[in-house]
């Protein structure tokens, strides 16, 4: 088999996977034009795949696809394409309990890097990367703390399922109930991953409902996440081609706020865990 034939076979398998994910036939898929982009953190953690369909796609085919938002765009959880490797990452998050230590290590590294004396152009590039890294660190912390605590507590898992619409509306056959029970931790963790933990509108109510933790005013984090998008996707420039406002002071301020928030959450979660036990 030639390299060209192998590439064509791999491409067809990928198309079959995409068609299956969208709930349409391969013939239907080939009538569409689309582009797939990954929504990921600065360190390569994929939160979701964003599929954007072209204008002029047949309406009868598009009508078969569920989950459209923002016009011709849908969002797909990463395990739909890389289930085995993604589940291994999720299993690690379920088992790991060192979230505070990990984010502390990230922030300590940022503190050291930010002290370098550099020329203005190089420093701006460094600050852009450091801002994105701090946001990625707090995103990962929020996600992994929630996943670890919920999946390792029957009471919290039950609380999540009872207070979350997605689980409440799911229907299972008797066979699926037994199968789902065996992999419930993975199912719950997958669902939490799919929420995209830099969407504060999802995080705040879930932490409140499950952990009874109130974030209070975290507009600073929402602003930092918005800035992070420009840092990651436009190398530090906004849509108007202007430099984002990242400075040594702003990065250090963000870093300190993330450190305080992570300690507060950890203390609250540990206290909550002791009460549940």
Report on this model:
This protein starts with a helix and ends with a helix. Strands 1-2-3 form a three-stranded antiparallel β-sheet, with no helix packed on it. The protein is mostly helical and 277 residues long. The protein has two domains: 74 residues, no CATH class; 191 residues, no CATH class.
Core attributes:
277 residues; mainly alpha; 13 helices; globular; disordered N terminus
Secondary structure layout:
Layout lengths: L2 H20 L3 H4 L4 E7 L5 E8 L5 H4 L10 E4 L6 H13 L3 H15 L6 H32 L2 H10 L1 H4 L5 H9 L1 H11 L5 H12 L7 H15 L14 H29 L1
Antiparallel strand pairs: 1-2, 2-3
Portion in beta strands: 5-15%
Q: Assembly state here?
A: single chain
* Low-pLDDT segments: 1-7
Major sheet attributes: 3 strands, antiparallel
Average pLDDT level = 77
In N-to-C order, the SSE pattern is: HHEEHEHHHHHHHHHH
Distance between the termini: 60 Å
As laid out across the biggest beta sheet, the strand order is 1-2-3
Radius of gyration: 21 Å
Please provide the count of β strands. Answer: 3
Q: Give the structural class.
A: mainly alpha
Helix content: 55-70%
Number of helices: 13
Taken together, the total number of domains comes to: 2
Overall shape: it is: globular
How would you concisely characterize the structure shown here?
By secondary structure, the protein is mainly alpha-helical.
């Amino acid at each position: 088999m030639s390299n060209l034939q192998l590439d064509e076979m791999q491409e067809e398998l990928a198309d079959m996977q995409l068609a299956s994910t969208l709930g349409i036939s391969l013939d239907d898929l080939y009538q569409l034009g689309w582009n797939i982009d990954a929504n990921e953190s600065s360190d390569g953690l994929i939160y979701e795949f964003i599929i954007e369909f072209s204008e002029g796609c047949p309406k009868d085919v598009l009508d078969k696809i569920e989950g459209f938002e923002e016009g011709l765009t849908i969002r797909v959880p990463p395990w739909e394409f890389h289930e085995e490797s993604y589940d291994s990452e999720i299993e690690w998050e379920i088992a790991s309990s060192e979230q505070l230590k990990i984010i502390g290590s990230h922030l300590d590294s940022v503190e050291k890097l930010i002290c370098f004396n550099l020329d203005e152009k190089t420093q701006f590039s460094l600050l852009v990367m450091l801002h994105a890294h701090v946001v990625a660190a707090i995103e990962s912390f929020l996600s992994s703390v929630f996943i670890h605590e919920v999946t390792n507590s029957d009471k919290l898992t039950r609380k999540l399922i009872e207070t979350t619409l997605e689980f409440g509306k799911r229907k299972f056959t008797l066979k699926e109930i037994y199968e789902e029970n065996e992999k419930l931790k993975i199912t719950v963790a997958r669902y939490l991953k799919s929420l995209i933990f830099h969407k504060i509108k999802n995080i705040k109510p879930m932490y409140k409902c499950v952990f009874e933790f109130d974030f209070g005013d975290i507009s600073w984090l929402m602003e930092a996440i918005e800035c992070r998008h420009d840092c990651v996707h436009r190398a530090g420039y906004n849509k108007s081609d202007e430099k984002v406002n990242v400075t040594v002071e702003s990065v250090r301020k963000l870093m300190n706020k993330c450190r305080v928030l992570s300690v507060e959450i950890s203390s609250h979660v540990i206290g909550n865990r002791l009460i549940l036990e």
